[in-house]
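Thread: quick sanity check before group meeting

JM: Hey all, I'm pulling together slides for Thursday and realized we never actually wrote out the predicted structure for the chain we discussed last week. Dropping the sequence here so it's in one place. If anyone has concerns about the input, flag it before I start.
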Amino acid sequence: MSTDLPYTRQEMMAIATGREVRDGELAIFGVGLSMLAGYFAQARHAPNVRSITEGGVFGATPVGGLPWGIECNRISSNAVSFTNAIDALGFLVASGRCDVGVIGAAQVDKFGNVNTTGIWGREIGEHYAPPKTRLTGAGGANDIASGARRFIIMATHEKKRFVEKVEYISSPGYLDGGEARQRYGFIGGGPSAIVTTLGILRPHPRTKEFELTAWFPFSSVEEIRASTGWELKVSKDAAPAPEPSEAELSALRQVDQTGMLRKK
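JM (edit): ok, ran it. Output follows.
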């Protein structure tokens, strides 16, 4: 990335993700960049977002910087109400009441399936075997991917992460494409976007294969395709994503007061 840009890749990704959140929605955010994106949206253009964490902290805004977890003092000190994960994930999300969620991914494939369980480096086969590298696990992401009306995936854009087919589906996207989600009876609508450190991918309306729809000012179509582990298609409407405005950067940095996620 050019050193003269007044923002980082992480900030661009958080702003691009936050732009996907609409005013008045019931939204669930994980920790880290997904929470930064969600509360940036609330601070900038969606003041009536009704936020909830996986632990059941409802209607809060971060105080003193981004929280370290889903129930720490920075996110719980001004909450409207407290409940628990059963209510948050099992009632609001699993019932289809949650409008939007934001999750991360260690691996993601061309149909938006997410792996955060482990890396095997081979076919798992009929019987589960321990992975070579164990990842953090799904947490509440599987519930969000299964039940939210739509969800957004955030991921670092690297070929080892953007694979033709994930080794394990921790959180379902469109499975093998097309109408697969409907066949399996998922309440939620599936992933609406994959926002990366290089650009934005969206699902084709019929096949559900993710295509490039926007690239960031410091990236290019060529770089993104070279960083993707499948033959990435480019939408006919693909275009550069708008740069962050001064007002957007100001709102973002008010949320991330400590600069915890201001990485290059």
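AS: nice. The mean pLDDT is 93. The chain has one domain: 9-255.
JM: adding both to the slides.
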